[in-house]
Design brief:
Keywords: Membrane, Transmembrane, Transmembrane helix. The termini are far apart. The protein is mostly helical and 134 residues long. It contains six helices and no strands. It has one domain (12-132).
Length: 134
């Protein structure tokens, strides 16, 4: 049976999620700073682009990996079906649910998306101001 062979993943150390968060924010900010660099320091455009794309790529690869671990845990242990049927949960099921809930509770994903949205809005407003204030 798949449940007997499946090992519930453990959360990463706190520093890993903070590093992923920092890379995501750095990538996001770098891409938005391209507009400012275009106006004041065009020689920085390539550097900001590479930092932005690499930072975002690493962040989204990490997020994709975390999501895949969560989905695999749910699928391998048939957790959704067990919850829908109100079936008894094994110790492994309870450990998996604890992992899933703890993983979601400490995720910095919502902060990353909020900051990315604010940086995007600031970049758009700055660009509009810069274009039309001349």
């Amino acid at each position: 049976m798949a449940e007997e062979k499946f090992h519930v993943p453990h959360r990463f150390p706190t520093w890993v999620s903070w590093l992923a968060f920092a890379l995501g924010i750095t990538g996001s900010l770098s891409l938005r700073l391209i507009l400012v660099a275009k106006a004041y320091r065009p020689q920085l455009i390539d550097l900001l682009w590479y930092i932005g794309v690499c930072g975002n790529m690493i962040f989204f690869l990490f997020r994709s990996y975390i999501t895949a671990r969560r989905r695999r845990t749910i699928r391998e242990l048939h957790l959704l079906e067990k919850l829908e049927n109100r079936s008894d949960l094994s110790p492994a099921d309870l450990e998996a649910l604890r992992y899933l809930v703890a993983s979601l509770a400490v995720s910095k994903e919502r902060w990353n998306y909020t900051i990315i949205s604010l940086f995007s809005l600031a970049a758009i407003l700055w660009d509009l101001w810069f274009r039309f204030s001349r």
